[in-house]
Design goal:
The strands form two sheets. Strands 3-2-1-4-5 form a five-stranded parallel beta sheet, with helices on both faces. α1 crosses α2, α2 packs across α8 and α10 runs antiparallel to α11. The protein has two domains: 186 residues, Rossmann fold (3-Layer(aba) Sandwich); 97 residues, GMP Synthetase, Chain A, domain 3. The chain has 322 residues and is α/β, with parallel strands linked by helices. The chain is built from eleven helices and ten strands. It is globular. The longest helix has 24 residues. The structure holds xanthosine-5'-monophosphate. Xanthosine-5'-monophosphate binds next to α6.
């Protein structure tokens, strides 16, 4: 099989793919050690399982707590993988990420700050401490396409941009999923024995909730968007849409609370129908659902006076806000 050609979901033979990729990982890493970061998304979960099949104890799996994850996410992911026999170590890096994001407002600058913090600082340190020479990661073809096309710098794409990770960060990167798109990764994950709650898990971006705060990212703003996100995820779970999210806007608008003027926050809701994230349409949500979302967000997220629903498709929109 050509190692860089696309393998569509229909073409993918999961058992053959697993055999081939575990062999590739074993022969690349040899007798050495590798690390990987598990976020709990379908891509990093699939890589974790492939890596453990190939390397067993010689793969160390970390959950990087960047302070930008959703409610209770670190605990839930560690517990889910414990059930699968995979030990995950949580690395607290909240201050490093918030420090790197301080004062930055531009979307690409924010993405770059996250990338540098993950790859140079946190993984650099973990590689040194563990003695590993390889990082396994779940880059997929859509990440590469959008980055190379200059649409959005995905946090995990290097070689295709001419960046040598060995030179830039001091370790090699192995990307076993780079021929697949999301639908293929789901099919693979099922064959790898991951539970449905993971192989059908909604995508969540590498820059996490910082992709959903317009303008500067602060712990307070992340808290706001985190609370709104958990309401949106609860209310829209039954839609089975491809992805749904809450976005915190930078602009404030005049509202009123308790008979007083309040120059308050705006939350935008997005809910997408899509197959592979390359194109997407807003889901036609019933008005009652929108109404319920608005009242729960206005009542449950401090300082919010405006809730909107996005009706623009991708393109020209993208799915995330930054
Ligand atoms: P966009 O916003 O580009 O998103 O339409 C397409 C899909 O990719 C996810 N996304 C990311 N995933 N790192 C990732 O791993 C990133 O930097 C990133 N940015 C966007 C997004 O959630 C959607 O599913």
């Amino acid at each position: 099989m050509n190692k860089s050609a696309e393998v569509t979901q229909a073409e993918l033979n999961p058992e053959e793919f697993i055999r081939e990729k575990t062999q590739e990982i074993s022969s690349a890493v040899g007798k050495g050690l590798a690390i990987n970061a598990l976020s709990g998304g379908v891509d990093s979960s699939a890589v974790t399982m492939l890596g453990h099949k190939a390397l067993g104890e010689r793969l160390k799996t970390y959950f990087i707590n960047n302070g930008l994850m959703r409610k209770d996410e670190p605990e839930q992911i560690v517990a889910a993988f414990k059930k699968l026999g995979v030990k995950v170590e949580v690395v607290g890096a909240e201050e490093e990420f918030f420090g790197a994001l301080k004062g930055i407002t531009g979307p690409e600058e924010k993405r770059e700050a996250i990338t540098q913090t993950f790859y140079k600082k946190v993984f650099g340190r973990l590689v040194k401490e563990s003695g590993a020479k390889y990082l396994l990661q779940g880059t997929i073809l859509t990440d590469v396409d959008e980055t190379v096309a200059g649409i959005k710098r995905q946090h995990n794409v290097f070689e295709q941009l001419g960046i040598d990770p060995q030179e830039a960060f001091g370790y090699k990167i192995i990307e076993p999923l780079v021929q697949l798109r999301k639908d293929g990764v789901r099919k693979l994950s099922r064959a790898l024995g991951l539970p449905e709650s993971i192989y059908n898990r909604m995508p969540f971006p590498g820059p996490a909730l910082s992709a959903r705060v317009i303008g500067e990212v602060t712990p307070e703003k992340i808290n706001t968007v985190r609370t709104a996100t958990s309401i949106v995820e609860e209310e829209l779970a039954s839609t089975k849409a491809f992805q749904y999210m809450a976005i915190l806007h930078q602009d404030r608008v005049t509202g009123m609370r308790d008979g007083k003027r309040e120059f308050g926050l705006q939350i935008e809701i997005r809910c997408w129908d899509s197959i592979d994230a390359r194109n997407a349409r807003p889901t036609k949500l019933p008005y009652e659902t929108l109404d319920k979302l608005a009242s729960r967000i206005l009542g449950g997220v401090g300082g919010v006076v405006s809730v909107t629903y996005n009706i623009a498709g991708k393109p020209p929109s993208t799915m995330e806000a930054i």
